[in-house]
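Backbone Fold Data
Goal — fold tokens
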Amino acid sequence: MALREANLDKLDNGEFDVLIVGGGINGAVSAAALSARGASVALIDRGDFAGFTSQQSSNLVWGGIKYLENYEIPLVRKLCMSRNRLMRAYPANVQEIGFLGVLGETSPFPPWLVGTGAFAYWGIGNFKTNAPRPMSAETIERIEPVVNTVGTLGGIEYADAYLKDNDARFVFSFIRSAMDVGAIAANYVELESAERVKGKWFAHLRDVESGSALSLRAKVIVNAAGPFLDGLNQSWNLHTRHQIVYSKGVHLVVDQLTPNERVLAFFDDSQRLFYVIPMGNRSVIGTTDTRVSDPHTSVTDADRDFLLGQINDRLDLNTPLRSSDIIAERSGVRPLVVRRQSRSMKNVDWTALSRKHEVEVDHAKQVVSIFGGKLTDCLNVGEEVADAVQVLGVHLNSDQRRWYGEPGRETRKAFFRQTRGMRIDDLRDKPGAEPLSERLWRRYGRRAFDMLDDIREDPSMAEDILDSSDYLRVELHNTASTEMVVKLDDFLRRRSKISLITRDADVRSSEGLHEVAKILFGENADAKLLEHFGSDFVTSQKNN
């Protein structure tokens, strides 16, 4: 945690061009774009980076084919261009994947119309993905035997993209990029109050971990608080043209339902789309779409029963899925942007709301507010926020577009030459396991070179440390020094996806768990384990 402590020292009594409140995807890309263009940036989040909405996505990077239903063609075009740009910039992280839409009795559209839409979608995206393929029920049965094709009218496979790793890790890559060029970021730092004095913002902060008070000054504030944006603006008596409403989404993680790396798409009984999404050797079922008034949500029995019932009806499984088959659950809200209205929101067609974003500028108060958005659109958000901050008088260098993307081709070639020379991939003998070299490059980029040096010096650094979770000792040491892990959940849930693909009981019983905690937290390891697992963890460990 030395990096975080150093950043807290730099925040306290510091003076910055921009204070960004919120470390989700919107705050992360804003920090990366602004700091790369020469602005002095402070970013804080009262929880962990990507610790709320941005850790609950479907891990999909897509243009939003479903928005064609409401003729939102400009939005679909914009999202498709964003998807294409992310695929070019992050070839190891954002990869094309097929979506097999199965059109059964609950489909609101006939196959010919869905096929027409898929080809239009392909064209709107400049034909940058594989072409759509119309399919008969017999073809679906042949390529995906798990699908129950009784009553199926046909299908279509089109292409979009997805995150190979988890969403929260992708968000953190922007935080890390921002820090690499001078931004000061700290998680678990709460904004208690802020007021404008003589043309500057004076912000009073609190370190959530220690309770210590901090303060800083900034010319401009970027409100990237996601679901909490409106409340923060209200505290400053700031009036906006837009507001946020919430839609709850739920995902269930189960053992792999199909070995094929494609997304299965179905219409549920209410004619809403839901998916089976690959996540390594797991499958993710979701999502729901429920209007809620509170951004704090959880998975209910009704949510589980609904999703399990829907998927059991549409798959031909040897044994229907039950609650006991659920490995992990995800529940979060989508912050949807709407025009502020004096009348009741009851008149809004909830299911027609899209994941567009809006960036508003308050010139008098020097505040930029980011409403809505999604992972796919993140680069546009970063660029628009930089433009807005520049309008408010903060000088920025020209945009060289170097604030995002993986290292270049030559750097990648150099890394893989080294891994071949070290025979890194020979360290893995698990059938079907991803080559270790590819995983290290995707997760860490240039930092992976240092890991190779550490493995050369100490071969034990290449050993798995948490049983079957596929995490190396060297990765833990790198995480401890560079990724500001404060709580065990920061590592298990966000810097990695361990708790998304591994049952809690298996993590608890892992022989390497105490070493993981020791590497991450040093002498505070036992306290962090107790904080995460509860008092019963100590008892279970003694019994073992």
